[in-house]
Design a protein that fits this description.
alpha/beta, TIM Barrel, 7-stranded parallel beta sheet, 3-stranded antiparallel beta sheet
Length: 378
Amino acid sequence: MTSRDRVISAMARRGYDRIPVKHEGTPEVNRMIMDHFGLKTMEQLLRVVGDDFRYVEPVYTGPEMRTFPDGSVEGYWGERYKYAEFAGGKYLESCYQPFAGVERLEDLDRSHFPSADWFSYSTIRAQCETLRDQGLAICFGTAGDMDFINSIARARGTEQVLIDLITDDPVYLEIMEARFRFYFEMHRRVLEAAGGLIDFTHIGEDLGTQKAQVISHEIFERHFAPKFKQYFNMVHSYGAKTMMHMCGCVMAFLPRLIEIGLDVYDVVQPSVPEMDIAELQRRFGQQLTFCGSVCVQSTIAFGTPAEVETEVKRRLKLFPEGGLFLGPTHAIQVGSPLANVLALYRAAGSLCETIDEKILALATVPEGAGGINMSKLF
């Protein structure tokens, strides 16, 4: 089977030669894997771990994203990011929030709103054709697309956004609507340019904490469900499937998301009993495909290779014909043992431990194509 054959067959529950795999790791973890195998590019890494998915991207042609004297970099919405460093790694964190403290619509600076016109879509078809020729499943988007809570919080503040959702604050709702229009139109143009060659689109919304949902059903129905339904319908009209990243405990929202058109639930964080992969499979396994599910907070970070293997084998028994794309519950984190990472993909049957010249020759991928463009999380 090609990667795409494997993924499509798993979606249809028709079986597969091995379970489909979707990798995600922090830059430091990816470097650890690459150094171990003597690899130079992310494409080589994805081939070695057996990742069945690749992403296409439009070319950014908009205003220059500025870098400031303090080293911070600008995001699409005028927010700024600096690296927060810790032992062994670093993360970009919001350090300037242009919409913080804005209480009146007349004070909202809409010049910070991006446009789908800031991108060229002329290379999308060629990217898709190259990846399709290589037998890969093709995706567009990231966990940061849409993302009305977490990403708006980076430009307005987390506490304020949660208050905004309860009070129906008009400033927040204006930003939310602008964010929806921006990503809806960008995704629509990419799908149009791809001419039916994109298999999945990818968006995100962190609707759960470690123990419960973040917002009420009433708030979800009022502000989120109509937008997601409109987006899912648009994606389906182009023949693609919808994938949505959701961290935390989101069981409460799954029936409604399925009803309005979600196809793939991405990452599946098994942090509480009701989110156990077996329980999710029992309740939703015929309606929803899952992606991820091997915990980066426990098993991969602090378990043993044997424990990682046990978790993978459990999933192989739960999804013998399909319904799961195996991978970590988020980016594999700094400090996770290499042996555990390799055990994940070895147990899945996807790890290529003999590096041949064909893999080493994969120094580049088509312009804009490949792994997730992390800048779009801004």
